[in-house]
Amino acid sequence: MLIEPVRTAVFTEKQDLPAFVRAHVAQLEEKDILVVSSKLFCLWKGLSVPYRSRRQKEELIRREASAALKTKLAWLTVKAGMVMTNAGIDESNADGKLLLLPDDLYACARELRAELKRAYGLKKLGIIITDSMILPLRAGVIGAAAAYAGFEGVRDERGRKDIFGKPLETTLVNLADALAAAAAALMGERNERRPLCRIQGAPVKFTERTRPDEIQYPPEQDLYAPLFKACGLMKQRRKK
After folding, report:
1. At residue 19, does pLDDT exceed 80?
2. Structural Rg of the chain based on CA atoms
């Protein structure tokens, strides 16, 4: 598998994202996956507000999250079917603004994929929208797939045998997040200006229809469900 980050110019608000990709990625081939920073989608869709105060930011976090809990370090929230900090609202590399995630990132991934398939003349192309997340009891951030399109993000190994012939009972391989993490390690978090990354030879099955529910695990069945319940994140609430 080949992972190649792409250095670009600074992407500006409401700039044409498909055109931006074409300007910086000379070639995409069949069965490539293009990883794109979620910041570019926030800016593409014009989802920014000037930063005014901490109170303003906290109000936005509560509004954007389906569940939210204030902690010592940040707000622990559920947004777009993922546990993330601050409902994905970001002020780093935002030039004094707060960037908000689109409500339907999967629709954004499908839109970009359709545009790039036409532009590069491809049939099989994957898109991953990557964002930073923090794993429980682990230091630092890691890249994760906030959304994706064009391939199956989870490989079901249940019923297959291990090296000793024992059938696997619960193993699901999260390919979307694994690829996002690998790409994010090269894309960077500071001033690297590498918001795009091309992956070739990824071990995935390409498809025209992506099902978000394959990776969005039901909270009540999740391994961390007792923890979520104890801290109040199992109780979902509607946005106002």
Report:
1. yes
2. 18
